[in-house]
Amino acid sequence: MFLFRYCSERNLAVNPQGGNTGLVGGSVPVFDEIILSMALMNQIISFNSVSGILICQAGCILENLSQYLESMDFTMPLDLGAKGSCHIGGNVATNAGGLRVLRYGSLRGTVLGLEVVLADGSILNCLASLQKDNTGYDLKQLFIGSEGTLGVITTVSILCPQKPKAVNLAFLGCPGFSQVLETFTTCRGMLGEILSAYEFMDDKSMKLVESHLKLSNPVTGSPFYVLIETSGSNSAHDEEKLNHFLEQAMTSGLVMDGTVVTEDKRIKALWALRERITEALTHDGYVYKYDISLPVKRLYDLVTDTRERLGRSAKNVVGYGHLGDGNLHLNITAESYSHSLLEAIEPFVYEWTAQYQVSISAEHGLGFKKKHYIHYSKPREAVHLMQKFKAMLDPKGILNPYKTLPASSL
Ligand code: FAD
Ligand code: MLT
Ligand code: ZN
């Protein structure tokens, strides 16, 4: 690519930018980087309705791809609240998780191939759309989740599932977090292969959505809420299974109240309660955001410990997330940014996380905001090897510098 040859010869740094929805500052230049917007690379190249393989340019907006596929009875294997703006290239570059990981796995499995422009301007074509290919190292994996620091993703080949014929969504209130966990194990056992999402939100998250966005919660008065989605091919069979599960959950006291919807419009409205928490938080003040992977049993302990530690110095401490994947989103709001509040939160949150040897970034990446905390989740040797990869692929350090990795050895 001409731009890269030009930049490489002149030592000009480049910041690839997709839909700019990333939550850790990866798409935002720090000093004088040139912003490389991928927005005009938005063409669908091909779709094979037998294999389900979609090949498209990196700047395609996720929601546009979903709509295109849905017209052919297929769907994207990923979905997230930022779907209306984020690009598939940005999703791959961040290895975005989202709401469907429980069912379709991560992009590390569904992305079959990539075309990438390297820092010297050469084009790496790893676009072969094969589900099985063990010839040498799987190079595309290096670029998935590399946040634009190793190459610019220009084309993506992705395996898309058939659109489920029957979708049900249950929104339930639970009396405590232990019931949220027990409901999860119960529904995993009873719904089996039709379970496609299990998300949880605490009461405080819901209050923010209600007060700032004026969305109405159909099941009020519970300390926790869960969204359970089923996706299958036989509505009568799926509904029977779901009803059986709900009966069991209600009679055993796991669930206090709830509602189930099957109509597309109502499904979207219920999902909005979960998907728009991020937006509601931004209306609440300055937001300190954390995205932690940890054993599900411990998932909410970090929220209660943080709440207790911060007391009245925080406006709200809320927890929600992809419980089915062991992924907590801990968010703390304050009227405005406060350095002393930040000092009370960090490194506390990272140290708390490190005691369980889990991840300080489950799905959002490290970007600019979290690169210095990588050592809480990765050993020194691993970080060192990552720095060697970076130096090999981008010897002049022109690709999204100041992101993902600390500059020197730890
Ligand atoms: P950008 O924000 O533009 O960029 C993100 C990073 O990728 C940057 O480092 C950038 O340099 C790099 N990049 C972008 N495009 C390319 C490219 N073509 N080649 C190389 N590098 C590139 N994340 C989740 O994982 N799960 C969620 O459920 C989720 N929900 C969200 C909900 C909301 C409301 C919002 C605002 C964000 C959410 N996110 C979520 C964050 C998520 O990372 C992004 O939404 C998305 O994956 C980033 O895509 P983007 O196109 O906006 O990338
Ligand atoms: C989500 O699951 O809603 C996203 O990852 C965004 C967020 O954490 O705010
Ligand atoms: Zn998330």
TrEMBL record:
EC number(s) for this protein?
1.1.99.39
How far does the signal peptide extend, from start to end residue?
Answer: none
**For this protein, what reaction is catalysed?**
(R)-malate + A = oxaloacetate + AH2
Annotated transmembrane regions: none
Q: Could you say which enzyme class this protein belongs to? A: oxidoreductase
- What sequence ranges are listed for the domain FAD-binding PCMH-type? 1-163
| Cellular component GO terms held in the UniProt record | mitochondrion
Give the UniProt keywords, A-Z.
FAD, Flavoprotein, Oxidoreductase
Which InterPro entries is this protein grouped with?
Answer: FAD-bd_oxidored_4_C, FAD-bd_PCMH, FAD-bd_PCMH-like_sf, FAD-bd_PCMH_sub2, FAD-linked_Oxase-like_C, FAD-oxidored/transferase_4, Oxid_FAD_bind_N, Vanillyl_alc_oxidase_C-sub2
Per the entry, which co-factors are needed? FAD
> What's a Gene Ontology MF term here?
(R)-2-hydroxyglutarate dehydrogenase activity
Q: Which family does it belong to?
A: Belongs to the FAD-binding oxidoreductase/transferase type 4 family.
Which purpose does this protein serve, as stated in its record? Catalyzes the oxidation of D-2-hydroxyglutarate (D-2-HG) to alpha-ketoglutarate. Also catalyzes the oxidation of other D-2-hydroxyacids, such as D-malate (D-MAL) and D-lactate (D-LAC). Exhibits high activities towards D-2-HG and D-MAL but a very weak activity towards D-LAC.
The name this protein goes by in its record? D-2-hydroxyglutarate dehydrogenase, mitochondrial
